[in-house]
Automatic annotation (TrEMBL):
Record keywords: Hydrolase, Signal
SUPFAM superfamilies: (Trans)glycosidases, Beta-D-glucan exohydrolase, C-terminal domain
Gene3D superfamilies xrefs: Glycoside hydrolase family 3 C-terminal domain, Glycoside hydrolase, family 3, N-terminal domain, Immunoglobulins
Protein name: Beta-glucosidase
Organism of this sequence: Asanoa hainanensis
Domain Fibronectin type III-like residue range list: 670-742
Length: 753
């Protein structure tokens, strides 16, 4: 478990000796007149011997109020030469009642960079073709591999830079409250510690190359757990749950990562817009967590300039895209009225400028034109590795997997196995990275890769549109590999977590026809499996990106050994979800108790987080409900045994040691997990993840896993703490368990007095 890293709350200034003498003309976006007259090596905000804070203060000291206000909106902040702007329509204002206003601002001070933001769920959005489409982040989290997360971040940062983007709006963090959420695949699982550490590693990768500086922005802060009425709902959550479940991963990502900004969410939290909440932005993010970067709205996210307090004073720094709720005229009117201060503008502008300088955006000009194709053999290989390590072998009865390379007949069945659409537009590319429809993806199809890997003439295919034909194809083979999928994405939640496209009937028909049926799942999160007892093997590959075919074939034939572990609990039925049977919890209700918005009603939908801390695996443990597959579950083509657990606690932290043995016949990688149950006085619903370590062992080999959690780890990650108005460590007995999933095998204890 990679958590013993220096805290990175404040980024170090970059020293780029080779770039110190760049002429002003190379800074794209510097006004022509200013470029001709200004030596950028001489202006104080370009003095690389000063700290980012000193440089930011120097720039603002040389700025007029209008130039400071420019930083408070993405369009004007990121295009320093642009002087004419037009306001955008607020979401709640009908189009026929909105009149845009066009106004001018002076050009920005000289030697100010052009900046371009990009969404980047797992590929650079809006850049067209020529980018690598990596697996979705749900797959990344299932690798439990922070080094791999950093490697993905490095690749994303490089591709962003070569496509002229120097701020990435990502990674995203949510807590998996309900798997029907349309953006589940974008996020990093249901555990706040795992999610936070993976996001931290990813962000460190994005900002790792000072010669290609790219800044990372976490999103969507916070309790943004559904797409239904995401622009007009209130997530109502108690203070303890808010800290322990929803803001904790942000805190960890900021402490251990390289984060320049945080994007606040569309929704309200406890009846205040996330982008105007003093509790969320000022108290929790900036004071409790200690975040010194900048905050920005989501695209059109509501925030009140005239609320009490105004969003600018509540801790919001920038509005995304065009001026919408903030305009320079309105802000100056409020300053004149005494509602806002120039100091409020200065504070917001300072946080933005300082973060951009610290990230290196002022020191390395954005490239003059984007590369047409930035995908390389190395990035394609990384996409395949990510898909392999993120895939989870859920079941493997009778050793059906791995497939042999001898002349066994293999039936491949299902529309997403091939690149020829069977019905509608569903094919292998449809679930490549479905959460990002504006990212073109041409997937290497599983059917092609399986056919290339198998013995010649042994693979047959049925698209699954005809169940009788699919069953006949399966019956004629020695083993049947059937692909099941569901689609999800931004703007809508799923109605359920069952397979799409009559998938359950297809799997059942194939399983009835062939006793050696393998199911490959392509979903963005948990999925129901009414056929689970009738199939031999189940492999979850998620939305596996452009290399889904080669990665799936490598896993099926054992060229790569599955090592992924679930970061979401898989329920047996939707009735087992913590929100099930509680419409006030999901999708939320209106004043009349209806889950459907009444005609003419514009009030926020009220979503009650009544399950409290019982999110994900905590819910199943507290309610004594057995999931289909628990959090942390994942099989291999070998087996592992745990023994001899010893736990020690002292002033230096907690040390967890145990023996791990590969008891099978193949080399494999096990993610050994440790959990801790707090004393009863803490009133926690269940044990929680304490730490983990990925271990690779040859057959018959053993090793002592030594998981050391320093005092800084315990404090920074709140591993033994609970929220009681402040982070508190309870006295009493702590029970540590160790194993290959939440269903752990070994137990030891220590006492804090």
């Amino acid at each position: 478990m990679h958590i013993r890293l220096p805290v990175a709350r404040r980024r170090l200034a970059l020293t780029l000796a080779a770039l110190l003498t760049l002429p002003a003309a190379q800074f794209v976006g510097v006004p022509a007149g200013a470029a001709a007259e200004t030596d950028c090596a001489r202006v104080p905000w370009m003095n690389h011997h000063k700290s980012p804070a000193q440089r930011a203060r120097a720039l603002l000291a040389a700025s007029t109020l209008d130039q400071k206000l420019r930083w408070l909106d993405e369009q004007s902040a990121n295009n320093p030469a642009q002087t004419t702007f037009t306001t955008a329509r607020p979401r709640e204002v009908p189009a026929d009642q909105f009149t845009p206003i066009t106004f001018t601002l002076p050009a920005q001070v000289a030697c100010t960079p052009t900046i371009q933001y990009s969404d980047a769920p797992s590929a650079i959005a809006g850049a067209g073709a020529g980018v690598t489409v990596f697996p979705a982040n749900v797959s990344l989290s299932a690798s439990w591999d922070t080094a791999l997360a950093r490697e993905k971040g490095v690749a994303m940062g490089h591709e962003a830079w070569r496509k002229q983007r120097n701020v990435l709006l990502g990674p995203g963090i949510a807590s998996g409250r309900d798997p029907r959420s349309g953006r589940t695949s974008e996020y990093l699982g249901e555990d706040p510690v795992l999610s936070g550490l993976m996001a931290a590693a990813y962000s460190r990768g994005v900002g790792a190359n000072p010669a290609e500086p790219v800044e990372s922005v976490l999103k969507h802060y916070v309790a943004n757990e559904q797409e239904i009425d995401r622009n007009n709902s209130s997530s109502n959550v108690d203070p303890r749950t808010l800290r322990e479940i929803y803001t904790l991963p942000y805190e960890i990502a900021i402490d251990r990562g390289d984060v320049g900004g945080v994007m606040c969410a569309f929704n309200q939290v406890n009846h205040e817009w996330s982008c105007g909440s003093k509790l969320l932005l000022d108290q929790i993010l900036k004071w409790e967590i200690g975040f010194d970067g900048w905050t920005v709205t989501d695209f059109g996210g509501r925030h009140g300039l005239t609320d009490d307090p105004p969003s600018l004073r509540a801790g919001l720094d920038q509005e995304l895209n065009a001026w919408r709720y903030w305009t320079p005229m309105a802000i100056k009117d409020l300053i004149s009225a005494g509602t806002l201060r120039v100091a409020d503008v200065d504070e917001a502008a300072y946080r933005i400028v300082r973060a951009h300088i610290a990230a290196g955006l002022f020191d390395v000009p954005r490239i003059a034109a984007p590369d047409a194709d930035i995908s390389t053999p190395a990035s394609v290989a990384l996409a395949k590795t990510l898909a392999e390590r993120g895939s989870v072998l859920l079941k493997n009865a009778g050793g059906v997997l791995p497939l042999t390379s001898r002349a066994d007949k293999i039936a491949v069945i299902g529309p997403t196995a091939a690149n020829t659409a069977a019905t509608g537009d569903i094919d292998a590319s449809s679930v490549c990275l479905h959460t990002a429809p504006n990212i073109p993806c041409s997937a290497a199809a599983p059917l092609d890769a399986i056919t290339a890997r198998a013995a010649p003439g042994t693979v047959s295919y049925a698209d699954g549109s005809d169940l009788t034909a699919a069953a006949a194809t399966a019956a004629a083979a020695d083993v049947a590999v059937v692909f099941g999928y569901y689609q999800e994405g931004e703007f809508a939640d799923r109605p359920n977590i069952a397979l799409d496209g009559n998938g359950d009937a297809l799997v059942a028909a194939v399983a009835q026809a062939n006793p050696n049926t393998v199911v490959v799942l392509q979903t963005g999160g948990p999925v129901l499996m009414p056929w689970i007892d009738d199939v031999k093997s189940v492999l979850e590959v998620w939305y596996a990106g452009e290399q889904v075919g080669p990665a799936t074939a490598a896993l099926l034939f054992g060229d790569a050994t599955p090592s992924g572990k679930l970061t979401h609990s898989f329920p047996r039925a939707e009735a087992d979800l913590p929100t099930a049977g509680h419409p006030d919890r999901y999708p939320g209700v209106f004043a009349d108790g209806s889950v459907v918005r009444p005609p003419g009603n514009t009030d926020p939908r009220q979503v009650t987080y009544g399950e409290g801390l019982q999110v994900g695996y905590r819910w199943y443990a507290a309610q004594d409900v057995e999931p289909l597959f628990p959090f942390g579950h994942g099989l291999s083509y070998t087996s592992f045994a745990y023994r001899d657990l010893h736990v020690d606690h002292g002033r230096d932290g907690v040390r967890v040691r145990f023996k791990l043995t590969n008891t099978g016949h193949r080399t494999g990688t096990e993610t050994a997990q440790a959990y801790v149950e707090l004393p009863a006085s803490a009133h926690e619903p269940a044990k929680r993840l304490l730490g983990w370590q990925r271990v690779t062992l040859a057959p018959g080999r053993s090793t002592t896993v030594d998981l050391r959690l320093s005092a800084a780890d315990l404090a920074d990650l709140h591993l033994l703490q609970h929220w009681d108005g402040r982070w508190t460590t309870a006295k009493g007995r702590y029970t540590v368990t160790v194993g290959g999933s939440f269903d752990t095998a070994l137990t030891d204890r220590f006492v804090l007095r």
